[in-house]
Write a structure and sequence with these properties.
The complex is a heterodimer of chains A (117) and B (426). Chain A has 117 residues and is of the alpha+beta class. Chain A has 2 helices and 10 strands; from the N terminus they run βββαββββαβββ. The relative contact order of chain A is 0.17. The chains are: A alpha+beta (117), B alpha/beta (426).
């Protein structure tokens, strides 16, 4: 039995995951918590957020995120693939910045509109 | 004072264009206010959300997980076509209880604006090294966590390489992860209290994910370095938060980030003579977020520091709608019940409730003084008799709580309502 704090939402439910019983989860407040508890012990994943350089915008950096959760172990490699990139303003919300992050199929997308400065 | 622009009479002027101001302005317009104006001192709307590039916003309000800029962006997009006026780069210098606003900007110069109602949505700011009195030299390399967040996430400056974080508030935890992903080594997070000040999920995904140790009941007792921070000395503290000699640990770091609390930014409120609550450091508010100055409302972190922007939005929508009703001539009246701290409760918002104006009921937001777990009850009582009890299994100071008191129960209360925490022992 493993104890985890759920990170799906800010409530932070205290989960008990039974590794010997098909990763059955108790203590969860919702179905997403059950899925999190199992995934966290089998294939933990995270949405990764960072920034990318922009030329000619109101700010010199534009925030980005992976459009889906990627394996936790790939977080550092994922942000490294933004190094050296430079977007040209204007940047649109949802604009794809990196097509395939570390072979996961996830994309880095811009999380705001960044007008010309 | 001369008036550069004659703007006529506004229905609602909102001071601040962050999440609170945006939600209040939109709600005021939806509730029928014709002329709504947002005054924002920054060059763009969205407030502090623009630098909060991490995700986790909007789970309550949008039922999905958004980043800060995405959450702000959705409200900014909603302004289009509403006719809500926005003045950016505009600093409000003064407000009066008869709802005159004095502001200044490069574009319009000095502006004297008149409104039927005002919504205060100025947010909060960070406590600094000076506010907590850390000893040591005064080298470069000491930042509040939010300032570092702006430098790293918006302006593209890396603030340091070997980082120590003082305080386990959410911004400090978020910056521990952010600095690690940007290639810095985060040595530890130091918290003076025996529990974290941030959300549990942030302990997991910002510290544990990156093997960053959290030292509870510890604090910084010395900072060394001439030009730049070179070392921080950390010691364990006793139950009175006094450092224990002999427990010192040295950390060779070039940067210290402070995440030691937020203070509602109420200079305008105070100057206008609007009463503040010493518990929240924000305005004393009624059930509709009206301050004790009629027609002046307040919402968001300027009233009390929230953990979740979703709750800021909900509170600000109530304030905006109430401001619109006031502008249209409606008055929330009737005798008021005060809301008092009982055992274990450190503050409540609202501070007073007018049952006649309460509609179907009132949400009471509050924080607790300590970490509780087990079979717990949040008890609301009046005149020594319980009105209602709400069950919880876990309560912590870092997590804002709320209960809803329906109108029928408010009508049973007399004089005041006391909120307290009860531990049920079986």
């Amino acid at each position: 039995m493993k104890e985890l704090i759920c990170i799906v939402c800010p409530k932070g439910c205290r989960l008990q995951v039974d590794e010997e019983n098909g990763y059955a989860v108790t203590g969860n407040g919702c179905a997403r918590g059950a899925a999190y508890g199992k995934a966290e012990l089998t294939n933990p994943t995270r949405v990764v957020t960072s920034t990318v350089a922009v030329a000619g915008g109101v700010h010199p950096r534009c925030p980005v995120k992976t459009d889906r959760a990627i394996p936790k172990a790939l977080m550092a490699r994922a942000v490294a693939c933004l190094d050296g990139l430079k977007l040209q303003a204007p940047v649109a919300l949802g604009q794809v910045v990196v097509e395939d992050v570390c072979g996961t199929g996830a994309r880095f997308v811009a999380t705001r509109n960044l007008p010309r400065g | 004072m001369s008036c550069a622009v004659n703007s006529g009479m506004y229905d609602v002027i909102v001071i601040g264009g962050g999440p609170a101001g945006l939600a209040a302005a939109l709600a005021a317009r939806e509730a029928g206010a014709q002329r709504v104006l947002i005054l924002e001192r920054d060059g763009e709307l969205g407030g502090i959300l623009n630098q909060c590039i991490h995700n986790g916003f909007g789970l309550h309000y949008f039922k999905e997980e958004l980043t800060g800029p995405e959450y702000a962006g959705r409200f900014i997009a909603r302004l289009a076509g509403t006719g809500i006026e926005v003045r950016l780069n505009t600093m409000v210098l003064d407000i009066t209880r008869d709802r005159q606003v004095c502001a200044v900007s490069r574009q319009y110069g000095c502006q004297m604006l008149q409104s039927r109602a005002i919504v205060l949505a100025m947010g909060c700011r960070e406590r600094t090294r000076g506010a907590i009195g850390i000893p040591g030299t005064r080298p470069a390399g000491i930042f509040t966590a939010g300032t570092a967040q702006r430098y790293v996430n918006m302006e593209g400056y890396m603030v340091g390489r070997r980082v120590l974080i003082l305080g386990s508030g959410d911004i400090g935890l978020i910056m521990a992860r952010r600095m690690t992903l940007e290639g810095a080594k985060v040595l530890a997070c130091i918290e003076v209290m025996p529990y974290s000040g941030g959300l549990n999920r942030n302990i997991v995904q910002c510290l544990q994910d990156f093997d960053i140790p959290l030292y509870l009941s510890h604090t910084i007792v010395d900072i060394r370095g001439e030009r730049r921070v070179e070392k921080a000395v950390v010691a364990r503290v006793d139950e009175h938060r006094r450092p224990i000699p002999g427990t010192e640990i040295g950390f060779d770091c070039d940067t210290i980030l402070l995440s030691v609390g937020l203070i509602p930014e109420n200079e305008l409120t105070r100057t206008a003579g609007i009463p503040l609550d010493g518990r929240t450091k924000g305005a004393y508010v009624y059930e509709n977020m009206e301050t004790r100055a009629p027609g002046i409302f307040a919402c968001g972190n300027v009233v009390h520091v929230h953990d979740l922007v979703d709750y800021v939005t909900a509170e600000s929508q109530r304030a905006g709608a109430a401001a619109a009703r006031f502008a249209a001539g409606a008055r929330a009246e009737g005798p008021a019940l005060t809301v008092e701290n009982g055992a274990g409760v450190s503050y409540t918002v609202p501070q007073a409730i007018r049952p006649a104006a309460a509609g179907k009921g009132v949400d009471i937001f509050f924080r607790v003084r300590a970490v509780y777990s087990g079979d717990l009850r949040i008890v609301a009582e009046s005149g020594g008799a319980p009105l209602a009890a709400f069950r919880r299994e876990h309560l912590a100071p870092g997590e804002m709580e709320h209960i809803t008191l329906p109108k029928a129960l408010l009508d049973k209360a007399a004089g005041s309502i006391t909120m307290r925490i009860e531990e049920v022992h079986s």
